[in-house]
Amino acid sequence: MEEKLVDEWKKEMDLILESKVEEFKLMGYSRATSNDVWNCLKKKVWKGNPSKRVHEVVGDIFHLSSTIYMSYLTVQAYQDDDIMASIAALSGPAEEEG
Fold first, then answer.
1. pLDDT value at position 1?
2. For residue 96, what pLDDT is reported?
3. Which residues pair with 4 in a beta bridge?
4. Judging by beta carbons within 10 Å of its beta carbon (0-12, 13-18, 19+), is residue 89 exposed, middle or buried?
5. Hey, what's the torsion of the CAs at 14, 72, 60, 6, to 10 degrees?
6. Per-residue DSSP letters for 64-77?
7. Three-class SS state of 53
8. pLDDT tens-digit profile of 22-63?
9. Which of 11, 31, 43, 91 has the most crowded CB, counting CB atoms within 10 A?
10. What is the pLDDT of residue 75?
């Protein structure tokens, strides 16, 4: 079986990712997206862009737990807040026009 970097398999995983998104939506995660699922896998499961066989990528998608997904989203939310706080701190208080 052929091995590719996981990013090279992404286009072929659209239906499988959508299936996982639907599963998460049924569990109450109404804002789940295929991009979030993919990025979660890259960051939390694969830790980058390793070489894998197609059945390994499919298995990893189907076995992604809601706990890992929520952990990923929580960290992302904190990082996004930190970025906004950093921008606000650097730009200083808004000056009022008189």
1. 80
2. 52
3. 52
4. exposed
5. 60
6. --HHHHHHHHHHHH
7. strand
8. 999 999 999 999 999 999 999 999 999 999 999 999 999 999
9. 43
10. 87
